[in-house]
Amino acid sequence: MTPPSTAPAPAAPSGGGRWIQRWDPEDEGFWREGGEKVARRNLAFSVLSEHIGFSIWTVWSVLVLFMGPEYGLTPADKFFLVSMATLVGAVVRVPYTFAVALFGGRNWTIVSAGALLVPTVVAFAVMEPGTSYTTFLVCAMLAGVGGGNFASSMTNINAFFPLRKKGWALGLNAGGGNIGVPVMQLVGLAVIGAGGGPRVLLGIYIPCIVFAAVLAALRMDNLATLRNDTGAARDAVRDPHTWIMSFLYIGTFGSFIGYSFAFGLVLQTQFGRTPLQAAYVTFIGPLLGSLIRPLGGALADRYGGARITLWNYVGMAAATGFVVLASVQESLVLFTVAFIALFVLSGLGNGSTYKMIPGIFQRKALREGLDGEAAVAYGRRLSGASMGLIGAVGALGGLGINLAFRQSFQTAGSGTGAFVAFLVFYGLCFAVTWAVYLRRPAVRAEERAAAEPTARLSYAEV
To answer: Where are the domains of the chain?
Structure first.
C-alpha cells in the first residue's frame, strides 16, 4: 500500500497566465490528490486543439477532390499540392516543440489554434476556378501550420503524465488529434453530397478554430517546471536513439499521414472513382487508424513498445503486399480492404512507437547509473526535447509517400511502384527495431552474472 503523500497537491492555477508552479506526477499521492484531474483536463482541451490542427493540415486532401477539370490541374499537380502541405507541417513541428517550454503549454495552444485561421480564411477567399496554381500552392503550404500542433501538444501532455500512464495519455492525445483527418473527410463528403462547394467546407471550420482557442484560454494550464532547455535539444540531436526512433516513426506516422493525403487521389487516378465515390471510402482508413492509436499505446504499456512495433511492421508489410497484388490485378475491393488494413496498422504502430520514446530515455538514465528523481528528470527532459524532432522526421515520411506516388503515376500510370518501395521500407523498419531494441547478444556462461544487471535494463520493455 502506497503511503499518503506529504507533498501538497497541485494548487489551482491563478490568474496572470495560469501557471502551475509545482508538478510531480511520479508521486502517486500527488497524482491521486489532484494531479490526475488537472492532467486529464489539459489532455481533453489539448486533444480538441490538435484535432482542429490535423483537420486544417489535411484540408487539401479534400479540397483537391473538389477541383475538377475547370481548375486545370493534373493528378501530378494535386499530389504536389498535398506534398507541400505535408512538408510545411513536418518542418514547423521542430519550433512548435520548443515553443511549449518557452511560452507555456496553455499559452502556445491559444496561439497555435488561433494561427489556423490564416490558412482557412485565405483559402476561403481564393478557392475558385481561375486562381493561379502558385496561389493554391501557397495556400496549401500555409495549411501546413496545422501539422505543428501535434508536436507542441505531445510535448505538453508528455510533461503532465507519469511514465506509467504515458502510453495511454500520448496515444489518446495523438489519436484524438489524428481523428481530425477522417472528420475533415467526412465533413467534405457531407458537403459534396449536399452539392456544396469548397468554400462551404472551409466556412464550417472557421468558428471551430475560434472555439478551440477560446476553450484553451479558459481551461488549460502552463507548467512552470517545463522550461526551455536548449541543452536538452542539443543532447537530443546528439543521441542516436532520437534518429533511430525518427526512422521508425517514418514507417508508422509517415505512412498514416501520407496515405491520408493520397488515398482519395489514388482512388480517383488509378481506379477512376468520382469525387463522391472516393469521399465515401477515404475517411474509413484514417478513422480506424486514429481510433486504434490509443490501443497501440496501451499494448505498449503492457507488453513493451518495441515488441508491438516489431510485429506491427510484419502486419504492415503483409498488408502492403496485398495492396501491390490488388494494384496489379486492378481489384478495387481487395485494394480498398488492404489499404484500410494498412491504415489500421499504421495507427497501432503510431501508439507503440511514441510510447517507446520516454521509456528509452528513462532506461538510458538507469543504464548510466541514475536513479529515483534524477532518472525521471533525465528521461522527461530528453524525451520531451526529442519528440518534436521525431515527429518532424516522421511527418516527412508523408512527404516521401506523396512524392513517390507522384513519380509512380507520372512514369507508370499507377501507384504499384510506390507500394513496392513502401514494402521494402517496412522490412528495413522491422530489421532496425529487432536489431536495436530486441536483439539479445549472447554472452559466455562466466559472463552472465556480470551481464545480468544490463540484461534487466534491456530496451525490450520500452
So the answer is: 24-461
What pairs with residue 19 in β-bridges?
A: 222
What's the whole-number mean pLDDT along residues 346-355?
Answer: 90
Per CATH, the architecture of 24-461 is what? Up-down Bundle (1.20)
Task: Please count the CA atoms within 13 angstroms of the CA of 129 that sit on its side-chain side.
Answer: 8
pLDDT in tens, 398-441: 999 989 999 998 888 888 999 999 999 999 999 999 999 998 65
Percentage helix, strand, coil for the chain under 3-state DSSP, each rounded to 5: 80, 0, 20
Q: Cα separation of 444 and 462, whole Å?
A: 26
DSSP per residue, 304-333: -HHHHHHHHHHHHHHHHHHHHHHHHHT-HH
Half-sphere exposure of 54 (CA within 13 A, CB side): 32
Please report, as a single letter, which amino acid is at residue 72.
Answer: G
- Going from the C-alpha of 262 to that of each of 86, 265, 270, the distances in angstroms are 11, 5, 11
Q: Burial code of 116-153, b = ≥16 C-beta within 10 A, e = fewer? A: beebbebbbeebeeeeeeeebebbbbbbbbbbbbbbbb
Q: Please give the Cα distance from 237 to 243 (Å, whole number).
A: 8
How many CB atoms are closer than 10 A to CB 384? 26
Three cell numbers, residue 157:
501532455
CA 206 to centroid of chain Cα atoms? 23
User: Is the alpha carbon torsion for 324, 329, 332, 334 positive or negative?
Assistant: negative
Distance CA 89, CA 91 (A): 6
Cβ contact 133:77 at 8 Å = yes
Cβ 351 vs Cβ 135: under 8 Å? no
Q: What CA–CA distance (Å, rounded) separates 277 from 267?
A: 9
> Which range has the worst mean pLDDT, 63-72, 142-151, 364-373?
364-373
CB of 96 closer than 8 Å to CB of 105 = no
Residue 460, judged by CB atoms within 10 A of its CB (0-12, 13-18, 19+), counts as middle
3-state secondary structure of 144: coil
Question: What cell was used for 453?
Answer: 544487471
What's the CA gap between 300 and 168, in Å, rounded?
9
Give the Cα separation of 181 and 373 in Å (integer): 38
How big is the CA angle at 168 (ends 9 and 145), to the nearest 5 degrees? 95
Whole-number Å distance between alpha carbons of 367 and 359: 12
Q: Which residues pair with 222 in a beta bridge?
A: 19
